[in-house]
Amino acid sequence: MPPENSEHDQEKVERLRRAMYSRALSDKLGARSRRDLDSGEAVVPDDFRNPEPGAAPAVVAPRAIGVARVVLWWLLGIAVVFFIGAGGFFAYYFTFGGGSPNASSSNIDITVAGPPQVESGSVTEFLISVTNRNPVTLQLADLILTYPPGTRSAVDYTTNVPSDRVSLGVINPGETRQGKVPIVLSGIAGTHADVKVELEYRIPGSNAIFVASSAYNITFGTSPISISVEGNKETIAGQPVQFDVSVSSNASAPVADVLMSAGYPFGFTQTSAEPRSATPGLWELGTFAPGQKKNITIRGTLAGEEGDERVFRFIAGTRASSSANAITTPLSQSAFTMTVSKPFLGLAVSVNGASDRRIVVSPGEAVTVAISWQNNLPLAISNAAIIARLTGIVIDGSTVKSADGFYRSADGVVIWDKTTNKSFASIAANARGTVSFSFTMPSSEDLRGILNPQLDISINAAGNRLSETGVPQNMQATTDQKIAIASDVQAQAQGLYYSNPFGSSGPIPAKAGVETTYAIVFTVTNTTNKITGAALAAVFPPYVRWVGIYSPDTEDIYFDGKRYAGGQVLAPPAGDPCQGVMGMCWSLGDIEPGAGLNGTQPRQAVIAIGFTPSSSQIGQKPPLLQDMEFSGTDDATDASIKKSISDVTTNIVGDPGFSAANAEVVK
Predict the structure, then answer these.
(1) DSSP conformation letters of 103-167
(2) Portion of the chain with pLDDT greater than 70, in percent
(3) Same-domain pairing of 471 and 514
(4) Which of 179, 418, 454, 667 is spaced 20 to 30 Å from 596 by Cα?
(5) What is the pLDDT of residues 22-60, one digit of tens each?
(6) Exposure b/e, 626-653, CB count within 10 A at least 16 = b
(7) How far apart, in whole angstroms, are the C-alpha atoms of residue 26 and residue 9?
């Protein structure tokens, strides 16, 4: 067979290869007849003599397929270039071109002017200015102010105001809008807070809402509420402890819905509290008027090892709503540290048998102070001494007595040592005992002009012991006691006939079956402390009636729960001490210290009554008003005051012109 052209053979092989791998041309391939092979001997092993399957038919792929592929690649490249160009165009158009916004928040100036330090709980004014430096108008502009927690309205001081929205309308290019915003901010002195200011606006041709923002940082210079805590800095484990917590208003405006919470350390167990807490450790103190103070007394026991320090934390503040049972905005806080110790000489004080930390007594009352001591050491104490120092009001030294001690009038101390009590020369381990002294409180006359008088007794103990190394050691122990003096309130009632300011009618002496009218004048005086919630109540006997007049008409005097004023019948308001009282009740409210003393006017009121005696009362001096009682609360001591007043009878001695011979009822 003549040899074929090699270039032509390569082209046929290439075309055949493409046709073999083309699915589109596989159906066009036709079968060809096989050529006859020579009958030479096989040169392969016998195991390879199995027949093989015929080869797959094939045709040569056309040249048009390669051209189509090139065209498709060009179309794909053009599409990619188109999309990249379109993306760049729109990015430029909406960022720098005609489709971009004409206003920028960076061209809006929001300026807040206000004090760098604000008085917490008082009205603070902020001057807010908004300037539009954009070339377009700002439409539907709203100023949104977000305040720190606890912010209240400057109108009523009670409404919580978390934020404000102020409509500014349209702000033209280059225009400045400004205004003042009054608000009451609250926080702890020294803390910081932010007032966030945002401007929401739209621009012409767009429905999108844009925002520009600013913030103003403030520092609270004062707290509207302050907390002070009184108590012993040291205590013995397991012994009673007491805290006197005072919450006071420093604000110039009312502070509404104040709460006080107490955080107790591990080992403290509360036994009582006055007033009682709304929930454990939380007191609802209500609204504080400017300068008002409220007191809370907490008693309990503290467990611990010697040397342990316990921290009590007190927080006063407000809450988000009246239904909340926790402080959401703290206004003041105070920490009180107490050390658990075991003094070498345990001291306990009682006054007139009572062991409260603060005792209330009356002017001129005899007082006995007992000091119990115990050696807490396993060793003896030598040269022990106890000293009680009296400070505050002046005690008449001639009234101070002690059977086993000595009163040194030069510096107002009572001393017990081995010269007055031989057992103090050496006190055995675990030994215990009691020393005491007594005195008389100053009279009301001596206390005149002194507001909230109080006697402080500080007690110190000292002694020596031998240490484990044989070196003498000097040891100290202290405690104290406060004695407050209640205000001496005096209430009297006097019957008048001849001096009746309303004019009297009827016979004197009173005649059976005939009405005689009298006036009853009530007089109340007060000495040292303010009295709150005062009232004077009395009962009418069945033969006495209220005529219907009283003086002055500015006083709140009720008869069987009703008061007649300006043609109206009024009942006592909720919480008034006269609410629900039958008979006569005079609601005095507050009585200032010194009322009726040193030339000042006492609290007085006069009522008119009619008395119609019965024949069974002939020869008697029947009461015109009976079961009279004065009540109130001593503001300085929180002690309740109740005083009985003698009945007013027909024997109206003290009325000018009246003779005791006319006191009995006649026929």
Answers:
(1) --GGGEEEEEE--SEEETTSEEEEEEEEEE-SSS-EEEEEEEEEPPTT-B-TTTS-SB-SEEEEE
(2) 85
(3) no
(4) 454
(5) 655 555 555 555 555 555 554 444 443 455 555 444 444
(6) bebebbbbbbbbbbebeeebebbbbbbe
(7) 21
- Please state the separation of Cα 177 from the chain's center in Å: 39
pLDDT for residue 207: 82
Please name the helix (run of DSSP H) or strand (run of DSSP E) that holds residue 629, with its range, or none: strand 623-634
Backbone angles phi, psi at 450, to 5 degrees: -100, 125
pTM equals 0.48
Q: Which residues make beta-bridge pairs with 438?
A: 368, 401
Averaged pLDDT score across all residues of the chain: 83
Domain end (from 179, 205, 222):
222
pLDDT digits (tens, 9 = 90+) for 581-638: 889 999 999 999 989 888 889 999 999 999 999 999 999 999 999 999 999 999 988 8
Claim to verify: residue 462 and residue 543 sit in the same structural domain = no
What's the domain count of the chain? 4
CA distance 108 to 90: 27
Which 8-state DSSP code applies to residue 652?
Answer: -
Report the distance separating Cα 114 and Cα 215, nearest Å: 12
Between these two residues, 464 and 454, which has the higher pLDDT value? 454
CB 108 within 8 A of CB 78: no
Query: What's the whole-number mean pLDDT along residues 273-294?
Result: 89
Question: Is the separation of the CB atoms in 229 and 245 below 8 Å?
Answer: yes
Which token pair is 650? 């027909």
Under a CB-based contact definition with an 8 Å cutoff, are residues 504 and 519 in contact? yes
For residue range 155-191, list pLDDT tens digits in order. Answer: 766 677 788 888 888 888 988 888 888 888 777 777 7
In a shared domain, residues 288 and 184:
no
Distance, CA of 430 to CA of 432 (rounded, Å): 6
Residue 102, SS3?
A: coil
Q: Do you know the residue count of the chain?
A: 667
pLDDT value for 212: 85
Which residues have CB under 8 Å from 25's CB, separation 6+?
19, 59, 61, 62
CA 224 to CA 319: how far, in whole Å?
15
What's the CA gap between 23 and 422, in Å, rounded?
Answer: 129
On whether both 541 and 589 belong to a single domain, the answer is yes
* pLDDT at residue number 26: 54
What is the pLDDT at residue 48?
39
Comparing CA positions, the residue from 280, 275, 271, 269 lying closest to residue 297 is 275
Distance CA 236, CA 142 (A): 63
User: Which residues are registered as beta bridge partners of 195?
Assistant: 216
Answer yes or no: do 215 and 237 share one domain: no
**What is the pLDDT at residue 331?**
84
Q: Give the domain range for residue 412.
A: 345-485
**What does the CA dihedral 296, 300, 304, 306 come to, rounded to 10 degrees?**
80
Confidence of residue 140 (pLDDT cuts 50, 70, 90): confident
**Do 457 and 586 sit in the same domain of this protein?**
no
Better-scored residue on pLDDT, 520 or 161: 520
- What the block records as the tokens of 127 is 């001057």
CA distance 120 to 448: 38
The pLDDT of residue 474 is 63
3-class SS of residue 40: coil
Reported as a pLDDT band with limits 50, 70 and 90, residue 19 is: low
Which residue, 313, 390, 386, is CA-closest to 343? 386
Which tokens in the block code for residue 490? 């005096």
Please give the span between the terminal C-alpha atoms of the chain, in angstroms, as a whole number: 181
**Backbone CA torsion sign across 580, 581, 585, 589:** negative
pLDDT number for residue 590? 94
Residues 331, 317 contacting (CB under 8 angstroms): yes
